[in-house]
UniProtKB/TrEMBL annotation:
Protein name: Class I SAM-dependent methyltransferase
Annotated Polar residues bias: 1-10
Presence of the UniProt keyword Magnesium in the record: no
Pfam families in the record: CMAS (PF02353)
Single GO BP term: methylation
Lineage: Bacteria, Bacillati, Actinomycetota, Actinomycetes, Micromonosporales
InterPro entries from the UniProt entry: CFA/CMAS, CMAS, MeTfrase_dom, SAM-dependent_MTases_sf
Family: Belongs to the CFA/CMAS family.
Residues of the Polyketide synthase-like methyltransferase domain: 176-429
Domain of life: Bacteria
Length: 448
C-alpha cells in the first residue's frame, strides 16, 4: 500500500515531444521523500517551502542552497553538522549553546526512510547534479582518517598523530574551557550525590570517589595519565597530601595546570608535565588514575597501554580507569563522522566487557566496576548551561563556528548518555602479586 505522505510533482511525457526536465523539488518535497510521516518539528527553507506543524516549539530552517548541499552530500550527522556549524542550517526555539531540546525532538519525531530508486532519481534530476557536488567543509572540520594517514601523520595512534588529535580538541583555548567547564577546569564525568549538586560539587565528588577507590594517603605517589588541566593532581595533593604527577599531550593544558599548581601553593606535592603517557617515569607509584584518556588510546592498543600503567605501579598498587564505553558490544569501535571530524579525531570506544577483559589480561586483578552513565548526562547539561551563560564571550574567544560545534556535541552526547547509546565506566584493579597479595580489603574501603 502506498503511503499518502509523499511528494509527487513529476509529469508524464507526450510521445513525439521533447522530454521536459522535472520541476525543481522544494526542500519540503525532499523532506517528505525521506521521512515516513510528518515530522513533529517545523522545517522551513530558503525556497519558501515548509513541512511540519506551524505551532511546533522547535524548528529547523535550511537557510541556503549550500546548506541543502551539505545535507544531501553527507547523509547522517556529518551533513547536518556541516550545515549547522557553517550557519546554513538554523535551529529555532533553542539557544545555539544548548540545542539539546531540538536534538531530542528530532530523535523522537523524525522517522527516516530510503526513497525508492525511481523517486530518488526524479528528485536528483529535478535538483540538478550540481546540487550533489560537496561544498568545502567548514574550517573547524578535521580531515578524514584516511587522509590523516597519507598526510604524514602516521598510522592511527602513532605518537605524532595522537599529539595532533589531542591538539585539535584540547588546545582550542584555555579561556574558552574556563568558561564552559567552570572553576574546577575538569573535562570528565562528574559524580552527583543527587541532582541538586552543583557542577563544582559533583566534580569534587568524582575526585573524592577516585581517591577513595585508590585508597590515597599522605605521602603516597600518584600518577595521573591524561591529566588535563590537573584537576585530579591538585585535588589529590590538596585534600590527601599525595605526591602527584600528571602527564598530558596538550601543551596548553600543561602550562595552565602547572601555573594553577604554583598559584595554589602545591608545587611541593604536585607537578604536571607535557608528556606522552608512554614516556612517564618508570617509578613505582602507589596508584595510577586514568580519567578520560582511554578513549584516545585505540582499542588495539589496550594491552600496551595497560601494560605501561601496570609497569609504573608497585606490587599491591591500584589502578582506576575511568572512560566512556559503548552500550553495544557489537557496534564499531570507531566514532560517527561528526565526532571523528569535529570533536575527537581517532577516538575509539569499546564495550565495558572488552575493557574489563583488557584490564584482566594485563595482569590486574579486577576488584570493582561501576557505571556512571546518567552522571555524565547531568555533567554535560551543566557544561551546556555554562556555554549559554557565557555565549557572547565564548564566541568572541573561539568564533561562532567553534562555539556551535561545542554546543552541538555536548548536547548530542547528553542525549546519547540518556538514551543508553553510550556509557561511562570506572574499573578498579590491583597489581596483585604472584602469591596473591593485593592489599585490597575484604570489602570496599571507600564511600560509594
Amino acid at each position: 500500500m502506498t503511503s499518502t505522505y509523499r511528494s509527487s510533482n513529476t509529469r508524464g511525457s507526450v510521445p513525439g515531444q521533447p522530454r521536459r526536465r522535472p520541476p525543481v523539488p522544494s526542500v519540503a518535497d525532499i523532506v517528505k521523500a525521506v521521512t515516513t510521516r510528518e515530522p513533529t518539528v517545523r522545517i522551513t527553507a530558503y525556497d519558501g517551502s515548509a513541512v511540519g506543524p506551524e505551532d511546533a516549539a522547535v524548528g529547523l530552517h535550511v537557510a541556503t542552497g549550500r546548506g541543502l548541499s551539505y545535507v544531501l552530500t553527507a547523509p547522517g550527522d556529518l551533513g547536518l553538522a556541516r550545515a549547522y556549524v557553517s550557519g546554513d542550517l538554523e535551529v529555532k526555539g533553542v539557544h545555539p549553546g544548548d540545542p539539546y531540546e531540538a536534538l531530542r525532538r528530532l530523535a523522537t519525531g523524525l522517522q527516516l526512510r530510503v526513497p525508492a530508486a525511481g523517486e530518488a532519481l526524479r528528485l536528483v534530476r529535478g535538483l540538478g547534479w550540481e546540487r550533489l557536488r560537496p561544498p568545502p567543509p567548514p574550517p573547524q572540520e578535521a580531515t578524514p582518517a584516511w587522509r590523516r594517514t597519507i598526510a604524514g601523520l602516521g598510522l592511527r595512534h602513532a605518537r605524532g598523530r595522537d599529539a595532533e588529535a589531542i591538539h585539535h580538541h584540547y588546545d582550542v583555548s584555555n579561556r574558552f574551557y574556563e568558561m564552559v567547564l567552570g572553576p574546577s577546569m575538569t573535562y570528565t564525568c562528574a559524580v552527583f550525590r543527587d541532582e541538586t549538586d552543583t557542577l563544582e560539587q559533583a566534580q569534587a565528588n568524582k575526585y573524592d570517589l577516585v581517591a577513595g577507590k585508590l585508597a590515597l594517603k599522605p605521602g603516597q605517589r600518584l600518577l595521573d595519565v591524561g591529566c588535563g588541566w590537573g584537576g585530579m593532581v591538585r585535588h589529590a595533593a590538596r585534600e590527601y597530601g599525595v605526591r602527584a604527577l600528571g602527564v598530558t599531550l596538550s601543551k596548553e593544558q600543561a602550562v595552565w595546570a602547572q601555573t594553577a599548581i604554583e598559584r595554589e601553593g602545591l608545587a611541593h606535592l604536585a607537578e604536571v608535565r607535557y608528556l606522552d603517557y608512554r614516556d612517564a617515569p618508570l617509578e613505582h607509584f602507589d596508584a595510577v588514575s586514568s580519567i578520560g584518556l582511554t578513549e584516545h588510546i585505540g582499542v588495539k592498543n589496550y594491552p600496551r597501554y595497560l601494560g605501561a600503567l601496570r609497569d609504573r605501579l608497585k606490587p599491591g598498587g591500584r589502578l582506576l580507569n575511568h572512560c566512556i564505553t559503548r552500550s553495544d558490544s557489537r557496534a564499531s569501535h570507531k566514532p560517527g563522522a561528526f565526532i571523528d571530524r569535529y570533536v575527537f579525531p581517532d577516538g575509539e570506544l569499546a564495550a565495558p566487557g572488552r575493557l574489563v577483559s583488557a584490564v584482566h589480561d594485563a595482569a590486574f586483578e579486577v576488584q570493582h566496576e561501576e557505571n556512571l552513565r546518567l552522571h555524565y548526562a547531568l555533567t554535560l547539561a551543566g557544561w551546556n548551561r555554562n556555554l549559554v551563560a557565557n555565549w557572547d564571550e565564548c564566541v568572541a574567544e573561539v568564533g561562532l563556528g567553534t562555539a556551535r560545534v561545542w554546543g552541538l556535541y555536548m548536547a548530542g552526547s547528553r542525549l546519547a548518555f540518556e538514551r543508553n547509546e553510550i556509557q561511562l565506566h570506572q574499573i578498579l584493579g590491583t597489581k596483585t602479586t604472584k602469591d596473591g597479595v593485593s592489599s585490597y580489603p575484604l570489602r570496599p574501603d571507600w564511600t560509594p
